[in-house]
Write a structure and sequence with these properties.
The protein is built from ten helices and twelve strands. The protein has helices at residues 54-61, 84-88, 106-111, 126-138, 154-167, 184-201, 212-218, 236-239, 242-249, 293-301; strands at residues 16-25, 28-38, 43-48, 69-74, 77-78, 91-94, 172-176, 204-208, 221-226, 229-234, 252-257, 264-269.
């Protein structure tokens, strides 16, 4: 990880809270009476099966979906009552599978992140130029600024979109499945970038992920969703059990320490091939149904 935040900005860590919210589409509720707090200055991964409410929760936090009851608050202010421009200067959002207009260059895409800072009496400024330059540098996209977005690889394209979100210069960054359809190398590249951004600038980051092992490895805090409710939340080493994985994903599994990090590693058990009939060709700790206290302590020390 060699990303560097060239702005060296000391960030305020705002608190984003959902209080007893209900989110629905066409009057069909997806989330009912849910409350949660996005932990300031940390990376939170939201996990769960398809249709569990992960993306709906993220959209609600981003004010892309308005709650029919309850409220989403940033530092105590209802985001629904704040001007759109103000929300866009405080919360950056990267939705699933964003599409750039044809022919747009990387630099032009990233510059769009500065639009919330524009106004009738404030047009493009040296501060905006610096914001774009810093965002490109932080995502290692400076050399590709003149390339068309539609000519980039999957990983490069995602980095370009993240650069645009960074150019907004928000203290909170919300990303909905940023690793979807990327190969494993590009997935790691994007998640490493998010860790670097959090470590160097103190941004609060929430990310929806499908890969439970990646969520455990990269997140400080997990929110596990099931049927529109939070089934559990906390540090990965503290909340993950085989029972929770069964409840959230409806699969049997075993938990072992990740050999690279010491954090929980989920090993799914196929119903067709029982674990006790598999041939083990590599040495690993005996599987367990929960992450033990010694494992938790070792993981937290790391």
């Amino acid at each position: 990880m060699n990303t560097k935040d060239t702005s060296n900005k000391v960030r305020h860590s705002p608190t984003l809270v959902a209080e007893n919210v209900r989110f629905a589409y066409d009057k069909h509720p997806v989330i009912e009476n849910l409350s949660m707090t996005l932990r300031p200055g940390e990376i939170t991964a939201i996990i769960g099966a398809n249709a569990s409410g992960k993306s709906t929760l993220l959209r609600g936090l981003a004010r892309l979906l308005r709650p029919s009851t309850g409220a989403v608050l940033i530092d105590g202010c209802d985001v629904a009552r704040l001007p759109t421009r103000e929300v866009a200067t405080r919360i950056g959002v990267l939705s699933q599978l964003p599409v750039a207009p044809g022919g747009l260059s990387v630099g032009e895409l990233v510059a769009r992140g500065r639009y919330p800072h524009q106004g009738w009496f404030r047009q493009w400024s040296p501060e905006d130029e610096r914001g774009v330059r810093d965002a490109l540098a932080a995502t290692q996209m400076s050399e590709l600024a003149d390339r068309r977005v539609d000519e980039l690889s999957g990983g490069q394209r995602q980095r370009a979109w993240i650069a645009m979100a960074l150019a907004q210069d928000t203290d909170i960054l919300l990303l909905d499945e940023p690793t979807t359809f990327l190969d494993i190398a590009h997935q790691i590249e994007i998640l490493d970038l998010l860790v670097d951004l959090n470590a160097t600038s103190g941004r609060t980051i929430a990310v929806v992920l499908h890969d439970l092992n990646q969520a455990c490895r990269y997140a400080d805090h997990l929110i596990a969703m099931s049927c529109g409710q939070i089934a559990a939340e906390g540090r990965p080493a503290e909340i993950l059990t085989t029972a929770l994985v069964k409840k959230v994903f409806n699969i049997e599994c075993r938990l072992i320490p990740d050999p690279a990090t010491g954090l929980p590693l989920i090993v799914p058990v196929s119903s067709r091939t029982p674990l006790d009939k598999r041939t083990t060709h590599w040495c690993c700790p005996a599987p367990a149904d929960r992450f033990g206290k010694e494992d938790q302590a070792a993981a937290l020390r790391r």
